[in-house]
């Protein structure tokens, strides 16, 4: 790596590393997740009381037993970060009203944080290997004492090492004294140690700590044991006497991975995906897909030979859109070995559909490797590894190299995106009805879908029953343990035909297909796809060769060449004849000169005249000389002509040979025309006549954008059948390989330990265990926050594929760990949806960026750019999109929208996408049976702000709509209520929870769950969709700053509109909001919403119709 490049990459990573130092741990968010009895605030006074023994006492319910504690030590307000910034950093230039509001909305530094978290066992003894620290207090202390320039990875590493020594001394002293539970004095001592280490001291009014108790139900059920090789479900007791050898980071999920990436840069071993991510391309390295050169690439890349061989089990009559197809084909080509590929997908353009086909294609390609094995054990290396987890070890068989590199991980900062991809993928409604008989580990997937509640197991129903275990959501430790329990241990009794089973029980059952028969079936399906693919590529070649379909055009080039050669032959022949004529002329000239010399000789004078050189003698001599000269010249010309004749004859013969060859070629071309025309006709009769654009510009037409090129239902079914066969082959392999005498059996033990958050002592053994897990579950998902912990121990480029979803919502540093561990990465998102939310003050982020010339311009600032933006900038293929008066380069764009009806589609398309999206739904109008029989409207409700942006009249209106719908349908309505503002969200939630119902009312628990799931800020609904969406706008003319901020970019309104499939209702002051940018499109113009008052929603009848009746919804 060039020194300049190394310096640049290190500067970017170090900048993000410094930024992450200041991110405070969200202690209040942690406590909000707990029941009231699960935590206790430990005040200074309580610990200072002499002989206090009650500092850690918490009463737990009688049906619970304590398993341990978490002590959050050194509590202080997050606002300390802002206070330090205001004290030390330069005063920023005055902000505009919009920027100031954005800063207030984004920099949420309210609530409590802490210095460290220390795990305690159930008796209250501290656990040496359960300590994590926050970097924020240390960063604040360093900044206060030495300034921002004193922050750095090496400085923190030294400080962390020093703190580890302090903790080891603490535990050594406890061991020598045989200490029991942590005492109040020790808590005070640890608190003082942390403050001195950080150089930062919270105010005296702050609590010393918060104690969280961990419990489990008293009644436990031992897991079934299928064999002595199965992993145990019991967790090992922690050893509190182990020394502290490392400290986890409490406040930042990304610091560790940033440090790993920086080490890779220093050693020159940067994975291709990460290097590409951090390196924007110059304009001359990019190819605009809307240009002529770009369209040529599109056309060529959509050729049948580039199609993926695997296809999701969807409706064969529904084609991929043109740009979906291009992204799929191009990603396959660009990421053959490694790299990064960015896809820019507006809402509803099929990002999930695209990812599904990428998954299917990878699964098929791995199945091709399996199909080449003679036996199931051939999938493993010949030599096993001895893998040790603490005091237990087993043999683990690594996979052969050919079966690795297919690992697939979906990552996102958005929990909903993770769930959409991995959880919904396994539900039956993810498959077309044609494929509902296909299953993959279906009983095991069913077992994992059973939710364990206090009242007992809750089984999935109908379409929520999984069809197969193609994916799973892991992430945090709790999710991994829950998955482990469902995979190996939880057994449920069911009287249904489809019974859930653990993996062990499934392995005990006989399977309908052996590995050998599944292999044979897959090979047949693979051959069918290969044959069909070759046929379609042959048809593409024939269409390209035969051109416009006339024989004349097909033979035109050969005919032209023949005509040209015929002309050349004729010209050469004429030249030869001319040469012969000139030879004849010259020969005649020679004869005349000879005769002339004979006549001259008759006049020859006698010897006496010649001796005396008489005049006659001199004349005779002169005439002889002149004649001789002329004869010599004539002979010379004749020789030249004869030499030229040889050359000309040779040239004529050569041209004649060429003419004859061309004539034969012309004849062959004519015969080829007839043969290929017949072949094309036969292929078209069998496959259908493909609809192709007449010109490259025609690729812009909706028919091609929607249906793509070279789609046909027959081939789609064959590719889906191959995917189904691949799943059956993988299932048959797993069943046979997992039998007691085969090699996968012992590997399951290691997989169980890894899912139980235990690590092999040899870090190099982590990857083989994960690779074996991916042979069970092909796709695993996680949030960025859990990525480093889930894949702890994996080195750079260890994972075959990483797919980043909703990348426009993720701060740029969040993806570093995923990119560092990935060999190939596909980034999917949309920068015109909700931007990343990063809570540190802009003033601090800018000051940290100024420390390096590579980051001083905010081009890598977390509050300015997202993962999607950086991936787009690194993409070769894409286009320019207008945004805020600038031209923004975006990665490979998806364009066909298949979610929203009008007016949502047209508004979003005009407002955010420069009318580049194409409407792809079969029907333009929404269904005739809506939740509310009113067209999408702007409900003009005005009022005065009561708190922040809350307008009570709008809150009351929305609550009455929900109440009326419930009383009409006896069920909480299927709708979303979103708002740009947290205050409006909170006000509506509180209002709904506190409402006094007249007549039928929902259960309180159901209402709470509905409110949590269906009412929120626009930010929290990205990635979701619903038939009906209300957007509560809030604000008034005297408090318009929030409205101006919400309208300053298209993102908020764009996301709100595109959550709604059938109806959207904006609720707010149309005179205020309708004058603002972007919202004005919804208030007036071609796609304006109908303007109504609250009275239009007066009566919501059984049929869903809304009629005026102010007595029901009334005036607030």
Based on the model shown, name its key terms:
9-stranded mixed beta sheet, 46% helix, elongated, 33 strands, 1116 residues
Amino-to-carboxy terminus distance: 68 Å
CATH topology group of the largest domain: Rossmann fold
Number of strands: 33
| Annotated CATH architecture of the largest domain | 3-Layer(aba) Sandwich
Major sheet description: 9 strands, mixed
Shape: elongated
Mean pLDDT over all positions = 89
Radius of gyration: 40 Å
Treating each run of at least 4 consecutive H or I residues as one helix, how many helices?
Answer: 37
Low-confidence stretches: 220-241, 1101-1116
Q: How much of the sequence is in beta strands?
A: 5-15%
Q: Tell me the strand order in the biggest sheet.
A: 9-20-21-10-19-18-13-17-16
Considering DSSP H and I runs of 4 or more, what fraction of the residues is helical? 40-55%
CATH superfamily of the largest domain: P-loop containing nucleotide triphosphate hydrolases
Q: Structural class, from helix and strand content?
A: alpha/beta
Count of domains: 4
The level 1 CATH classification of the largest domain is Alpha Beta
Describe it for me?
- The protein has 1116 residues and is of the alpha/beta class.
- The chain has four domains: 207 residues, no CATH class; 378 residues, Rossmann fold (3-Layer(aba) Sandwich), CATH 3.40.50; 104 residues; 191 residues, P-loop containing nucleotide triphosphate hydrolases (Rossmann fold), CATH 3.40.50.
- It is built from 37 helices and 33 strands.
- The strands form nine sheets. A nine-stranded mixed beta sheet has the order 9-20-21-10-19-18-13-17-16, with helices on both faces. The chain has a six-stranded mixed beta sheet with strand order 1-7-2-5-6-8. The protein has a six-stranded parallel beta sheet with strand order 28-27-29-30-24-31.
- The longest helix has 73 residues.
- The radius of gyration is 40 Å and the shape is elongated.
- The C terminus is likely disordered.
């Amino acid at each position: 790596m060039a020194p300049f490049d190394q310096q640049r990459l290190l500067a970017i990573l170090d900048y993000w590393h410094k930024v992450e130092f200041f991110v405070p741990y969200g202690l209040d968010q942690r406590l909000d997740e707990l029941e009231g009895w699960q935590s206790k605030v430990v005040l200074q006074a309580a610990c200072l009381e002499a002989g206090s023994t009650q500092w850690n006492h918490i009463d737990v319910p009688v049906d619970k037993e304590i398993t341990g504690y978490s002590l959050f030590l050194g509590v202080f307000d997050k606002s300390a970060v802002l206070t330090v910034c205001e004290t030390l950093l330069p005063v920023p230039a005055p902000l505009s009203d919009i920027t100031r509001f954005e800063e207030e909305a984004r920099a949420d530094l309210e609530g409590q944080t802490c210095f460290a978290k220390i795990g305690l066992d159930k008796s209250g003894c501290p656990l040496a290997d359960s300590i994590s620290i926050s970097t924020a207090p240390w960063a604040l202390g360093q900044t206060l004492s030495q300034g921002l320039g004193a922050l750095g990875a090496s400085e923190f590493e030294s400080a962390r090492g020093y703190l580890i020594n302090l903790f080891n001394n603490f535990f050594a002293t406890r061991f020598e004294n045989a200490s029991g539970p942590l005492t109040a004095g020790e808590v005070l001592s640890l608190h003082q140690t942390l403050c001195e280490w950080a150089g930062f001291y919270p105010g005296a009014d702050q609590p010393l700590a918060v104690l969280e108790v961990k419990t489990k139900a008293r009644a436990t059920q031992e897991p079934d044991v299928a064999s002595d090789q199965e992993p145990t479900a019991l967790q090992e007791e922690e050893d509190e006497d182990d020394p502290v050898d490392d400290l986890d980071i409490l406040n930042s999920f990304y610091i560790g991975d940033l440090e790993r990436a920086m080490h890779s840069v220093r050693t020159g071993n940067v994975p291709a995906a990460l290097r590409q991510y951090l390196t924007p391309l110059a304009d001359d390295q990019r190819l605009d897909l809307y240009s002529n050169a770009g369209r040529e690439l599109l056309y060529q890349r959509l050729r049948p030979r580039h199609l993926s061989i695997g296809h999701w089990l969807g409706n064969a009559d529904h084609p991929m859109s043109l740009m979906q197809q291009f992204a799929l084909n191009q990603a396959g080509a660009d990421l053959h070995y490694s790299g990064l590929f960015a896809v820019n997908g507006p809402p509803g353009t099929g990002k999930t559909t695209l990812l599904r086909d990428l998954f299917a294609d990878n699964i098929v390609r791995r199945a091709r490797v399996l199909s080449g094995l003679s036996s199931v054990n051939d999938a493993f290396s010949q030599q096993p590894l001895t893998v040790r987890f603490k005091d237990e070890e087993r043999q683990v068989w690594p996979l052969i190299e050919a079966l690795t590199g297919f690992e697939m991980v979906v990552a996102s900062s958005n929990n909903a995106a993770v769930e959409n991809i991995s959880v919904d993928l396994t539900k039956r409604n993810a498959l077309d009805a044609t494929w509902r008989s296909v299953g993959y580990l279906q009983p095991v997937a069913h077992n994992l879908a059973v939710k364990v509640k206090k009242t007992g197991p809750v089984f999935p129903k109908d379409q929520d029953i999984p069809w197969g275990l193609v994916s799973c959501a892991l992430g945090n430790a709790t999710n991994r343990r829950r998955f482990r329990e469902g995979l190996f241990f939880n057994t449920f009794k069911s009287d249904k035909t489809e019974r859930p089973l653990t993996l062990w029980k499934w392995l005990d059952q006989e399977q309908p297909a052996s590995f050998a028969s599944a292999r044979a079936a897959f090979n047949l399906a693979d051959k069918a796809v290969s044959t069909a693919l070759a046929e379609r590529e042959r048809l593409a070649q024939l269409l390209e060769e035969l051109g416009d379909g006339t024989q004349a055009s097909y033979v035109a080039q050969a005919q032209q060449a023949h005509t040209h050669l015929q002309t050349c032959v004729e010209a050469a022949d004429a030249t030869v004849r001319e040469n012969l004529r000139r030879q004849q002329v010259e020969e005649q000239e020679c004869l005349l000169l000879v005769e002339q010399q004979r006549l001259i000789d008759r006049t020859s004078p006698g010897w006496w005249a010649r001796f005396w050189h008489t005049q006659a003698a001199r004349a005779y001599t002169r005439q002889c000389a002149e004649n001789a000269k002329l004869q010599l010249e004539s002979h010379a010309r004749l020789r030249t002509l004869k030499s030229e004749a040889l050359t000309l004859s040779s040239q004529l013969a050569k041209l004649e040979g060429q003419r004859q060859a061309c004539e034969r070629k012309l004849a062959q071309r004519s015969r080829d025309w007839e043969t290929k025309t017949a072949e094309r006709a036969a292929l078209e009769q069998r496959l259908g006549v493909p609809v192709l654009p007449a010109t490259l510009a025609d690729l812009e037409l909706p028919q091609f954008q929607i249906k793509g090129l070279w789609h046909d239902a027959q081939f789609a079914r064959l590719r889906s059948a191959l995917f189904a066969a691949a799943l059956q082959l993988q299932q048959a392999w797993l069943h046979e390989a997992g039998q007691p005498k085969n090699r996968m059996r012992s590997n399951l033990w290691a997989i169980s330990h890894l899912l139980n958050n235990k690590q092999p002592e040899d870090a190099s053994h982590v990857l083989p265990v994960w690779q074996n897990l991916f042979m069970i579950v092909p796709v695993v998902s996680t949030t960025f926050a859990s990525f480093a912990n889930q894949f702890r121990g994996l080195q750079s480029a260890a994972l075959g594929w990483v797919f980043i979803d909703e990348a426009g919502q993720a701060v740029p540093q969040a993806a570093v760990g995923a990119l560092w561990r990935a060999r190939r990465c596909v980034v999917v998102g949309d920068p015109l949806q909700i931007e990343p939310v990063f809570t540190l003050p802009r003033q601090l982020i800018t000051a940290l960026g100024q420390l390096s010339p590579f980051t001083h311009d905010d081009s890598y600032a977390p509050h300015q750019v997202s993962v999607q933006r950086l991936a787009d900038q690194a993409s070769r293929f894409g286009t320019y999109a207008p945004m805020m008066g600038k031209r923004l380069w975006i990665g490979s764009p998806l364009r066909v929208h298949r979610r929203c009806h009008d007016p949502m589609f047209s508004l979003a398309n005009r407002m955010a996408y420069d009318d580049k999206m194409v409407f792809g739904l079969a029907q333009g109008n929404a269904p005739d049976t809506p939740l509310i029989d009113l067209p999408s409207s702007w409900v003009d409700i005005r009022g005065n702000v009561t708190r922040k942006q809350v307008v009570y009249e709008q809150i009351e209106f929305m609550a009455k709509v929900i109440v009326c719908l419930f009383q009409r349908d006896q069920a909480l309505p299927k709708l979303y209520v979103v708002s740009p503002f947290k205050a409006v969200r909170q006000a509506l939630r509180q209002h709904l929870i506190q409402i006094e119902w007249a007549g039928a009312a929902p259960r309180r628990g159901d209402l709470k769950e509905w409110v949590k799931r269906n009412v929120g800020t626009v930010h929290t609904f990205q990635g979701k969709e619903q038939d009906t969406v209300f957007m509560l706008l809030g604000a008034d003319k005297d408090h318009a700053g929030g409205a101006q901020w919400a309208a300053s970019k298209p993102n908020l309104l764009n996301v709100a509109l595109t959550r709604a499939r059938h109806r959207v209702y904006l609720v707010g002051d149309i005179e205020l909001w309708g004058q603002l940018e972007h919202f004005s499109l919804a208030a007036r113009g071609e796609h304006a919403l109908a303007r109504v008052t609250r009275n239009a929603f007066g009566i919501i009848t059984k049929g869903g119709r809304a009629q005026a009746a102010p007595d029901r919804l009334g005036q607030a």
